[in-house]
């Protein structure tokens, strides 16, 4: 039986593994189907992590984390977890795809979040053929071309800035006239001559042909339409938490959740179920920043260590 199962291999999961194993837990496995690093590996640049003065891509930033966090015995299982359930004796069953399962004394869930869809006509049709949620992954395909960045938060503005270094022009489309990003980022965007702000509009539809996207049509509050002919649209309109593995067979959740599907935790990352912890983007009131996820993971790892030992 595992002392601790960690579900998710982003900053929260890796940090949890580091603190739990360095604290003395011997049988700790991090379940992450892909390579560790999490969603931040698709970010174009990290410039706000304390102590890291160099601006790095998310992929480069996360590269040394695995080596450091596994130095004390954390194991990585490239398995997909389908469900976590609580046993009568207080332990947990970790159901894996393919019908296998593992037993664990404690569990930390760090499954993070995934980008939301903007839900405009043609978004799904042209996803991967002009519509993207990852500037780092797909920005290169639009070198010296015009693109749209959709959204008004930190991610949207940061990715618009990143795209401006690659593309000839970036149309930043937002449904309001104000942004939810940090003031310094807003200032950079407003002072960038390659970024045009298109505010107080919504996307009516994306259009194209068999070869891919040809553009989008936006509409303002008065119904006036504008056709923006671009081969690429990058959607950054928020995140959905990945909570599916906490759903039980009867449709209920294993632990308490809020109305938006975030896991309810206390300051020590304890859920309503003893031995079950949640960290990072999945929890209530998460700041959705790497440094905060890492802090959550460290706290959860320490708490799991104490739980198993006592």
Automatic annotation (TrEMBL):
Keywords: FAD, Flavoprotein, Oxidoreductase, Redox-active center. Its EC number is 1.8.1.9. The keyword Flavoprotein applies. Its cofactor is FAD. One of its GO terms (molecular function) is thioredoxin-disulfide reductase (NADPH) activity. GO terms for biological process: removal of superoxide radicals. Residues 3-297 form the FAD/NAD(P)-binding domain. It is an enzyme of class 1 (oxidoreductase). GO terms for cellular component: cytoplasm. It holds the Pfam family Pyr_redox_2. It comes from the Bacteria. Gene3D superfamilies: FAD/NAD(P)-binding domain. It catalyses: [thioredoxin]-dithiol + NADP(+) = [thioredoxin]-disulfide + NADPH + H(+). Homodimer. Belongs to the class-II pyridine nucleotide-disulfide oxidoreductase family. This is Thioredoxin reductase. It comes from Sulfurospirillum multivorans (strain DM 12446 / JCM 15788 / NBRC 109480).
